[in-house]
Amino acid sequence: MYALKNKSILSMAVAMAVSTSAYANDNVIEEVTVTAKPTSYANNVIEPTMLEQQSSVSSVLSVIDNLPGISINEGDAFGGDDWSTTITMRGFSIDSNQQQLGMTVDGIPNGGSNYGGGAKANRYLDSENLVTVEVGQGTSDIKSASLEALGGTFNFVSKAPSFEKSTTFAYTSGSHDASRYYVKHETGTIFDNTQAYVSYSQTDTSRWIGSGSNGGKDNQHAEAKFVTTLDELTITGRLSYDDVSETNYNSVSLAQFEQTPDWDQLTWNWTGVPHFDQMFAEGWGTLRENTLGYLKFEYAISPTSLLTISPYYHKNSGRGDWIPPYLTSPVDENGNPTTEGGTNAGSYGFTDSNGNPLAPNAGCTASLNWPWESGPELNPACYDADATPVMSYRHTHYNKDRLGVTANYQASIGMHDIEAGFWYEQSDRDESRDWHKVIDARIYHHFDNTPYWTQYKNTFETDTLKWYAQDSMAFGDLTLNLGVKKYLVDIEKYDHYQNATTAKVNSDSDLLFSGGILYQLNSNTELFTSYSENFAAIKDGVLERDSSDLSAIEPETAENIDLGVRYDNNALKLTATAYSIEFDNRITFIAPGSDTGGIDYTIGTNGSYLNVGGIESKGLELSASYMLSPQWNVYSSYTNNNSEYKGDAPGFEAGSKVIDSVDDLFVLSTDYYSGDFRFGLSAKYTGERGDVDSYTVVDLNAGYAAEVNAGPFKAIDIAFVVYNITDESYLAGGTGNGSTYFIGAPSTAAVTLTATF
Question: What are phi and psi of 216, to 5 degrees?
Answer without folding.
Answer: 170, -155
